[in-house]
């Protein structure tokens, strides 16, 4: 297509010049529509901008009546322009007035124009407006012309997204690109975070979209595609990747997308319209994302993430930017926004600056959520397309209580949340006032409350809360945040610091629980179809005894002259516990032989989280000194429901009779053998669940620091005998699907703070 000014490449260069001119936003738009009309030999060119109220406003035109600018407004379900915006697809018609969606607006004077071409103005798949050209003649626009107009719309998208047009708008009618958003997700970690967006995997900002050398840009694109394909081939050829399995099929599908001729062809065509290689990648991916966002098929929606990732990899190749998160230069109040991330990735950040976490995925019992709770970071998950709707630096509120997220919040919403934060601070002061009071129920039963911990930043919480001790210290967190395997002396220093901070209070150290989604960055990952059920925790430790021995040696030396409590995770059979305990005895013998001082006493326990142990409790309790229940994994395995999979993580209720019967069987058997048992899973961190645990016999709970005050306040008001009397028949009869509603009703009637 050749127009009066020499084609789309000339148009893009002229647009670049207009973008650089020091003129007002309205003057810039007015010049742009004139340029586009002349270049495309169109008698009309108009720009419609999507507003915060969901309507489309005419912002600039060449050919229609100028008096209609900022006067013509239409709904997104109205007219051809509304259809383009709603469907995010181009519409090309030789006789627009014959189309059933045509909407006549007399103030525009468009009744004399017949042919119509409208394309959506897209950014990250989100519609920001519509760009239209029209002619009097009944003509059909060519594919090349449609492609050229879509390319031009990219430039307009950046103008709208920049916020430059906001000053032109009346209050309540601002462009939707910068509109406040109120999104609903799933509350993962309690708290309220007010701050600014930090994208975990930032979009690559394409600063140069207009090409100077088309053959050179095609070569750059082809080179980046070749490099991308080679990297995927290397990934698939890695010996650590199993030859069969679902993960293999996913990677093969990923490779198929990278070799898709249609995808590559569309990017090459975009370059030929005058775009740089990176501009072409962004254009094609934005168009693809817009279509996929409007699909309901979950499989196709998942493939959108694959294409997003491939496009980002290509952009990194083309711009010379390494992948990964930007951890430096965090604002003081950072809200991390991501599709999903590993616990190790979160721990890479400066945690003193993080106030919240917002995810497109995430589950309430995932390890990432557990780490966020341990760090006191508000977290919200299941927020659809959040990554595509925010920019780095945007103001954002993450409400980990209600699951709401406010992006670019209005002043009144922000003020309301500031007040809400003040109110929470007062509640925390009330909880702090309970610090030195015993955790005793109204009818005189003492409940020991311990803390879950895993980092040095957790240690001040011991004295702040007045906790009885540390019921679970997750030793793997130190390994996850380190750039190399921590040496014995580094481990010893950490463990000694923990014992020093605890003073006379007991500390239970869990040996390394790595594997599954807890991958050490410096260790080769093993691909498994079911990693949660695979080579992890004690299984890895027994197969690699040198790793387990070095950790146990460091723990024994750190506890010189003090009591040491060790617990082994993911034990499936008493024989595994026997082998692990034998390693402890060997290390004690080694230290004794070499003249080292020893702990005053060593107690060895087991994590009850594999259902098979429920049928070995008699043998187990004759061997162990104590036990802890890992309710997260135990419930997950009981229901065969992956706690990291949002589709099934909340499908089964931990307060269902089946779950509580299993937990009660453990508490009863521990009491029979006189062995202490602590529940240290996330169940203990929620007041209603803690109520149920106390009612079925648990007298030791270990919970997150943020939950300590609410759980303690509830227990001090609880009539435990009445709660037990409610729960016992419900468990015996098993007629209710869950005890959640009966317990809520009980708590409400008793005035318990939940």
Description:
The protein is built from 26 helices and 22 strands. An eight-stranded mixed sheet has the order 7-14-13-9-10-11-12-8. An eight-stranded parallel sheet has the order 21-20-19-18-17-16-15-22. Strand 11 (354-359), helix 11 and strand 12 form a beta-alpha-beta unit. The longest helix has 24 residues, at 214-237.
Strand order in the sheet with the most strands: 7-14-13-9-10-11-12-8
**Mean pLDDT over all positions:** 87
What is the share of helical residues?
Answer: 40-55%
Work out the strand percent: 15-25%
Low-pLDDT stretches: 1-5, 239-247
Can you count the beta strands?
22
What gross morphology would you assign?
elongated
Report the major sheet.
Answer: 8 strands, mixed
Rounded radius of gyration (Å):
31 Å
The helix-and-strand class reads alpha/beta
What's a concise summary of this model?
The chain is of the alpha/beta class and 754 residues long.
Layout: helices, strands, pairs:
Elements: H1 8-20, H2 25-39, E1 44-50, E2 55-62, E3 73-75, H3 79-87, E4 91-93, E5 115-123, E6 126-135, H4 143-161, E7 181-184, E8 186-189, E9 192-199, H5 214-237, H6 246-258, H7 261-272, H8 277-293, H9 298-319, E10 334-338, H10 343-347, E11 354-359, H11 367-374, E12 378-381, H12 386-389, E13 395-399, E14 404-407, H13 411-432, E15 448-453, H14 460-465, E16 470-474, H15 476-481, H16 488-502, E17 507-510, H17 538-543, H18 545-558, E18 563-568, H19 574-593, E19 601-608, H20 617-621, E20 626-629, H21 631-639, H22 657-673, E21 677-679, H23 687-695, E22 700-703, H24 705-716, H25 720-733, H26 740-750
Parallel strand pairs: 9-10, 10-11, 11-12, 15-16, 15-22, 16-17, 17-18, 18-19, 19-20, 20-21
Antiparallel strand pairs: 1-2, 1-6, 2-3, 4-5, 5-6, 7-14, 8-12, 9-13, 13-14
Helix pairs in contact: 1-2, 1-4, 5-6, 5-7, 5-9, 7-8, 8-9, 13-24, 16-18, 18-19, 23-24, 23-25, 23-26
């Amino acid at each position: 297509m050749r127009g009066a000014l020499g084609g789309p490449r000339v148009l893009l260069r002229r647009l670049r010049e207009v973008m650089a001119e020091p003129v007002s936003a309205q003057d810039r738009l007015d010049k742009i529509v004139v340029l586009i009309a002349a270049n495309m030999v169109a008698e009309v060119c108009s720009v419609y901008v999507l507003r915060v109220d969901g309507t489309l406003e005419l912002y600039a035109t060449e050919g229609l009546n100028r008096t209609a600018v900022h006067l013509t407004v239409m709904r997104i379900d109205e007219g051809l322009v509304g259809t383009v915006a709603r469907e995010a697809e181009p519409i090309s018609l030789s006789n627009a007035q014959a189309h059933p969606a045509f909407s006549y607006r007399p103030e525009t004077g468009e009744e004399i124009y017949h042919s119509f071409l409208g394309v959506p103005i897209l950014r990250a798949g989100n519609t920001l407006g519509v760009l239209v050209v029209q002619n009097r003649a009944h003509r059909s626009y060519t594919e090349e012309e449609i492609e050229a107009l879509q390319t031009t719309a990219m430039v307009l998208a950046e103008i709208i997204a920049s916020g430059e047009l906001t000053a032109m708008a009346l209050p309540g009618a601002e462009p939707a690109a910068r509109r406040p958003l109120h999104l609903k997700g799933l509350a993962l970690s309690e708290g309220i975070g007010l701050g600014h967006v930090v994208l975990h995997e930032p979009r690559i900002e394409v600063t140069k979209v207009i090409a100077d050398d088309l053959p050179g840009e095609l070569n750059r694109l082809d080179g980046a595609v070749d490099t991308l394909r080679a990297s995927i081939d290397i990934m698939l050829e890695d010996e650590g990747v199993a030859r069969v399995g679902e993960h293999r099929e996913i990677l093969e599908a990923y490779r198929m997308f990278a070799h898709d001729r249609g995808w590559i062809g569309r990017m090459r065509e975009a370059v030929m319209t005058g775009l740089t290689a990176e501009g072409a990648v962004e254009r094609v991916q934005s168009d693809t994302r817009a279509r996929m966002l409007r699909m309901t098929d979950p499989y196709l929606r998942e493939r959108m993430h694959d294409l997003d990732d491939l496009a980002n990899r290509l952009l990194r190749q083309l711009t010379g930017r390494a992948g990964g998160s930007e951890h430096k230069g965090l604002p003081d109040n950072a809200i991390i926004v991501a599709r999903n991330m590993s616990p190790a990735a979160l721990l890479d950040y400066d945690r003193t600056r993080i106030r919240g976490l917002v995810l497109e995925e995430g589950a309430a019992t995932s390890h990432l959520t557990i780490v966020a709770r341990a760090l006191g970071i508000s977290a919200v998950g299941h927020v659809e397309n959040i990554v595509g709707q925010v920019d780095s630096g945007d103001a954002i509120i993450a409400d980990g209580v209600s699951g709401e997220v406010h992006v670019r919040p209005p002043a009144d919403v922000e003020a309301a949340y500031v007040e809400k934060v003040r109110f929470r601070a007062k509640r925390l002061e009330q909880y702090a006032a309970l610090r030195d009071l015993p955790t005793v129920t109204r009818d005189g039963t003492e409940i020991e409350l311990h803390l879950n911990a895993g980092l040095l930043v957790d240690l001040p919480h011991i004295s702040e809360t007045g906790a009885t001790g540390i019921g679970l210290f997750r030793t793997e967190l130190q390994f996850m945040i380190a750039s190399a395997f921590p040496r014995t002396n580094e481990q010893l220093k950490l463990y000694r610091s923990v014992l020093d901070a605890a003073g006379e209070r007991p500390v239970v150290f869990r040996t390394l629980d790595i594997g599954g989604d807890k991958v050490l960055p410096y260790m080769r990952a093993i691909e498994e179809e079911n990693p949660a059920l695979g080579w992890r925790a004690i299984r890895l430790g027994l197969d690699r005894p040198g790793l387990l021995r070095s950790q146990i040696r460091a723990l024994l030396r750190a506890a010189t002259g003090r009591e040491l409590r060790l617990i082994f995770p993911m034990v499936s059979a008493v024989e595994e516990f026997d082998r692990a305990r034998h390693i402890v005895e060997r290390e004690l013998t080694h230290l004794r032989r070499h003249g080292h001082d020893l702990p005053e006493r060593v107690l060895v326990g087991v994590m009850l989280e594999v259902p098979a142990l429920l049928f070995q409790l008699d043998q187990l309790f004759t061997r162990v000194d104590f036990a802890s229940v890992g309710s997260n994994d135990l419930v997950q395995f009981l229901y065969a429901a992956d706690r990291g999979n949002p589709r099934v993580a909340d499908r089964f209720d931990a307060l269902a009779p089946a779950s509580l019967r299993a937990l009660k069987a453990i508490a009863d058997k521990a009491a029979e053998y006189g062995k202490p048992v602590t529940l240290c899973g996330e169940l203990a961190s929620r007041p209603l669940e803690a109520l149920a645990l106390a009612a079925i016999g648990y007298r030791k709970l270990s919970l997150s620091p943020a939950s300590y005050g609410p759980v303690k306040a509830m227990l001090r008001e609880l009539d435990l005998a009445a709660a037990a009397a409610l729960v016992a028949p419900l468990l015996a009869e098993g007629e209710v699907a869950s005890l959640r509603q009966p317990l809520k009703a009980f708590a409400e009637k008793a005035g318990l703070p939940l």
